[in-house]
Amino acid sequence: MPDAPPKLPPLTALPCFNAAARHLSFTKAAEELHLTPGAISRAVKHLEQQLDVQLFERGTRSVRLTEVGEPYAKAVRDVLDQLAAATAAATARLSGSTLNVSTSDGFAGRWLVPRLYRFRQAHGNIDVRVSTTGRLASFHGDGIDVAIRYGAGNYPGLTAEWLADEEVFPVCSPRLLKGPHALRKPADLRHHTLIRDGYPIAWADWLERAGVKGVNARSGLAFDSYTFAVQAAVQGEGVVLGRTMLVADDLAAGRLVRPFKQALKAFSSFYLVYPPEAMRQRKVKAFKEWLLEEMRNSV
């Protein structure tokens, strides 16, 4: 006798429940799914009736998950993420496919983009879209295939492959090595403009480690973008804290120099991050192989 089909909830209600559970708001869930709050409410109510359980406790202006609803919401979210990933893998095509890469503005501008033409030469049938938003992109929610992230390598549910470590050290235009206030030792920084960005290791950390006093670490030029900060240093506007991977090309070309040897080991490293199932797609596998080869050649 054949097995009875599994008992499933009303599948059309699950996206509504998932969005409401994530936002803890029917209104925000409606905005995300381009529905009305009433439609979200009815879908969730229908789901509760079919399951014969209460998933939300409803207040005057808020909702919260019940003891039953909270684990169920996590299970539904996991299932929908797996379904989205499986759908992406099943419909992926090498010819005419698009590879969506998420990374930081600094890594994109200072390392990835100058080398990306070589990937395009080898894989001209793969279009590449690079996302450099400040927030941490979601693979399934934002359609990201692979990410290059800077951190500790701890990304639950994702595969993280180490790419490179970093050191942090001052760099500047060769022009700053000349003149009456030439940069010869760290104490000479008091005569020059410090260029800052949003990097976790700030000038205050480096100056303290180098034993430099009398320099205001909060003064000078400040940029949100590391790319702009480095460009300002190339133009001779001051001294920026260089990062191994991101100033390598400028040092090799002589656009920047290291006036002193002192360096700090960075807290974080670069990682290639992707959902485990992403390697089923040939475009992702091709990008990974190209990236690792470029990293080896950069050392």
Provide a descriptive summary of the structure in words.
It is elongated and about 85 Å long. Helix 5 links the parallel strand 3 (97-102) and strand 4 (126-131). The chain folds into three domains: 11-90, Arc Repressor Mutant, subunit A (Orthogonal Bundle), CATH 1.10.10; 92-165 and 268-298, D-Maltodextrin-Binding Protein, domain 2 (3-Layer(aba) Sandwich), CATH 3.40.190.10; 167-265, Periplasmic binding protein-like II (D-Maltodextrin-Binding Protein, domain 2, 3-Layer(aba) Sandwich), CATH 3.40.190.10. The protein has helices spanning 14-23, 26-33, 37-51, 69-91, 105-122, 139-142, 203-210, 226-234, 244-253, 282-298; strands spanning 56-58, 63-65, 97-102, 126-131, 146-151, 159-164, 167-171, 194-196, 221-222, 239-243, 264-265, 269-274. The protein has a five-stranded mixed beta sheet, covered by helices on one side. A five-stranded mixed beta sheet has the order 9-8-10-7-11. A two-stranded antiparallel sheet has the order 1-2. The longest helix is centred in the first third of the chain and has 23 residues, at 69-91. The protein is built from ten helices and twelve strands. It has 299 residues and is of the alpha/beta class. Helix 1 (14-23) crosses helix 4 and helix 2 (26-33) crosses helix 3.
